[in-house]
Amino acid sequence: MLRVVKTITRPAPARAREPDAGAPRPEHWARGLPLLAPDLAGLTVLLLAARQLEGTPLVRMVLFGGALLAVRRAAFVAWTGTDPLVPSQSANRRRAVAMAVCLGLVVLAVGLPLAIPAGQGLAVAALALAFLPAMLTPLEHQALRACGSSSTTMSALAGAAVTLVVGLALLAKVPSATLVPVVALAAGDPVSLLLARHRRHGGPCGLLPQQASSTPVEVRRRSPVSAAVASMLVGAMPLVALLATLRPSSDKTLIGALVVLGLFPLLASGIAPALVVRNVGAGRRDALMPALLVSATAGSAVVLVALVAPALLLHLSDARLGLHAAYFAVAMAGLGMAQVLVHQRVAEGAARTVLVLTSLALALQVTMTLTGRGTAADVAVDASVAATAMLLVSLAIATAVSAPVPLVVPVEEAGDGPRFVGWALLGLTVAAAGLRLATARDIWLDEALTARITRGSFLSVVNAASSADAHPPLQMVLAWASRQAFGPGPFALRLPSLVAGILLVPLLYLTAKELYDRRAGMAAAAIGAVAPPLVWFSTQARPASVATLLAVAALLTMLCAVRCGRPSDWVLFGLVGAALVWSHQLALVHLAVLHGAVVVALIRRRRGQERVLPALGGWLVALGLVAAAAVPLLVLRSGLGPPRVLPPLEYATAAAPGGETSVFPLIGSLLSGVFGFHPVSVTSRLLALWPLGMLAGLAVLGRSRSRQGPLLLLLATAPVAVILMAQLLGAPRRPTFAIGWFATAVPALVLVIGRGVTMVGGRWPRTRLLTVAAVAVLLVALVDQTARVHPLRRFDVTPVVAEVAGTARPGDLVVYEPKAIGDLLRYKAPDVEMRALGAEPDAAPTPHRRVFVVAAFSLTNPDRSVPRVVEYVKTLGAERSLRSERGRDVKVWMFE
Amino acid sequence: MSDATDCRLAPPTWRPLQGGWRLRVARLLTIVNVPMAIWYLSWLLAPGRAGHPVLYGLLVGAELFNMIQVLGFWWTLASIRRRPPKPPFTDAVAVDVFIPVYNESVEIVEPTVAAATRLRTAQVRVHLLDDGGNPAMEAMARRHGVNYVCRPSNEGAKAGNINWALERTDAPFVAILDCDHVANPRFLEVTLAYFDDDRVAFVQTPQYYANHGQGGIAETSWAQQTLFFGTIAVGRDDLGAMFCCGTNVVFRRTALEAMGGFPTDSLTEDFELSLRLHEQGWKSRYVPEVLASGLGPEDMASYASQQLRWARGCLSALPRIIASRLPFKIRLNYLMSAAFWLTGWTLLIYMSFPVVRILTGAQPVTVASVDQFLVHWAPYFATGLVTVSLASGGTYTFGAFALQSANFWVHVVASLLTLLRRKGSFAVTPKEGATGRQIKPIRFPLAACAILGGVAVYGLTRDQSPATVNNVAFALVHITVLFSGMWPALRGGRAEPAPEAVAEPAPSLGQTR
Question: Do B43 and B161 fall into the same domain?
Answer without folding.
Answer: no
